[in-house]
Task: structure prediction
Amino acid sequence: MSIRLPRRRGPSSVAVAGALAVAAAAAFGTAAQAHTTHRHGSAAAAPVVKEQKPWGIAGDAKAVKRTIEIRMGDDMRFTPDRIEVRLGETVRLVAVNAGAVLHEIVIGTPDELAAHAEMMKQHPGMEHDEPYMAHVDPGRRGEIVWTFNRAGTFEFACLIPGHFDAGMKGTITVRR
Ligand SMILES: [Cu+2]
Result:
């Protein structure tokens, strides 16, 4: 398919300005969406953007071979608080909120999680949604489908102010 465009000697400033406006609008649209689409477990949400992270990449539900249920309680504990996966394994993490308050599970490196927790303290109303996290209302369950394609020791944590400091975290070991 070919589209004929009128010949130009160079990019007209109008065209450039227009392109920039479109790009800016797209960027703002994405940001706005990221801050309003918050509810997890709604599988009908926008398609997951697969971005490689040091702790893996968003997984395909079809590739899931194992489901691990993790209970979250108001005692600020995850049960189990240690999980082991094989390098390359795609796992469905089902976070069950057995408590009476909101909890979340976020996967990352220890440094990344600590920095994120600090940011949440400074911006208490902050809402975010990434394929490596799930926010779970009391009595509900949330899911993360994640491919652990990087070996190492990672963590999962609840970054809600107070919860992280109370030690609400666990360890994920990815073995070769
Ligand atoms: Cu929590």
Remarks:
- Residues 79 and 176 are 24 Å apart (CA to CA).
- The pocket of copper (II) ion is lined by residues 103, 158, 160, 163, 168 (CB under 6 Å).
- The chain has two domains: 11-40, 57-175.
